[in-house]
């Protein structure tokens, strides 16, 4: 006898398998050939493609919580969470309602992807990564372990972010109404690369195919195809020609 609870209104594709103690809520759609681990909770209306693996104790389609003084969590109607085909979702991951994950994305153990976030196909979201709400993450990106992407940020295609990178969107650190006039996440243009333990301050733009050295503190926008380093970060040199996206032979 199955220990899982699956709503009568859910649609489950052929050859999809469930572990023990799963809960699948109303109007969920799950494609064919999926493997759902133990203790997985899939909230109402979620849409999951074919051949998706979801590991133990993960939650998909969670509604956001709004604190009384939250600056970014809004009362709003959110679209259902959607997970593209051939994705792998790790253990104890939380993916919120209103999140759209493209095909062949890996979301590793303990990651959190908030509401109103899009993640492009073939992207890797590493262990313990947090992507806050209202973010756009492009295709073929790689966010390594414990990266923090603040709300209202944009990462274009083929961005690389090394472990423990931190971003910020509030120069006023939660005080005074003035902050709402300047509240803005970071932008990392196509092919931008961020070194380990770098910090990017609110509203800053990392140029296309540029590189931020490990430990750098980015306090102003960076130019395309330049390496910046230091505290505060300063332009150091050009990115080596053989490192540029245009010389990798990768598909668009």
Gross morphology: globular
Number of strands: 33
Task: Summarize the main sheet.
Answer: 12 strands, mixed
Spatial arrangement of strands, main beta sheet: 3-6-9-12-15-18-21-24-27-30-32-33
* Category from helices, strands and their pairing: mainly beta
Structure description:
- Helix content is 2%, strand content 29%.
- It is mainly β and 252 residues long.
- The mean pLDDT is 94.
Please give the structural blueprint.
Layout: E1 5-6, E2 11-12, E3 17-18, E4 23-24, E5 29-30, E6 35-36, E7 41-42, E8 47-48, E9 53-54, E10 59-62, E11 82-83, E12 88-89, E13 94-96, E14 100-101, E15 106-107, E16 112-113, E17 118-119, E18 124-125, E19 130-131, E20 136-137, E21 142-143, E22 148-149, E23 154-155, E24 160-161, E25 166-167, H1 179-182, E26 187-188, E27 193-194, E28 199-200, E29 205-206, E30 211-212, E31 217-218, E32 226-229, E33 234-238
Parallel strand pairs: 1-4, 2-5, 3-6, 4-7, 5-8, 6-9, 7-10, 8-11, 9-12, 10-13, 11-14, 12-15, 13-16, 14-17, 15-18, 16-19, 17-20, 18-21, 19-22, 20-23, 21-24, 23-26, 24-27, 25-28, 26-29, 27-30, 28-31, 30-32
Antiparallel strand pairs: 32-33
């Amino acid at each position: 006898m199955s220990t899982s609870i699956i709503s009568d209104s859910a649609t489950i594709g052929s050859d999809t398998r469930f572990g023990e103690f799963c809960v699948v809520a109303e109007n969920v759609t799950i494609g064919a050939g999926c493997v759902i681990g133990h203790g997985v909770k899939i909230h109402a209306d979620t849409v999951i493609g074919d051949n998706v693996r979801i590991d133990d104790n993960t939650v998909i389609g969670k509604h956001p919580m709004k604190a009384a003084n939250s600056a970014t969590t809004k009362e709003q109607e959110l679209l259902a969470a959607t997970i593209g085909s051939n994705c792998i979702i790790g253990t104890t991951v939380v993916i919120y309602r209103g999140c759209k994950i493209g095909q062949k994305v890996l979301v590793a153990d303990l990651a959190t992807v908030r509401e109103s976030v899009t993640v492009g196909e073939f992207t890797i979201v590493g262990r313990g990564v947090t992507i806050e709400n209202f973010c756009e993450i492009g295709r073929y990106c790689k966010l390594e372990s414990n990266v923090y992407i603040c709300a209202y940020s944009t990462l274009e295609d083929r961005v690389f972010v090394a472990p423990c990178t931190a971003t910020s969107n509030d120069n006023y650190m939660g005080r005074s109404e003035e902050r709402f006039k300047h509240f803005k996440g970071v932008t990392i243009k196509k092919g931008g690369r961020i070194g380990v333990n770098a910090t990017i301050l609110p509203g800053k733009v990392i140029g296309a195919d540029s590189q931020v050295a490990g430990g750098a503190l980015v306090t102003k926008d960076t130019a395309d195809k330049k390496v910046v380093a230091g505290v505060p970060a300063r332009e150091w040199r050009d990115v080596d020609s053989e490192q540029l996206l245009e010389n990798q032979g990768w598909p668009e």
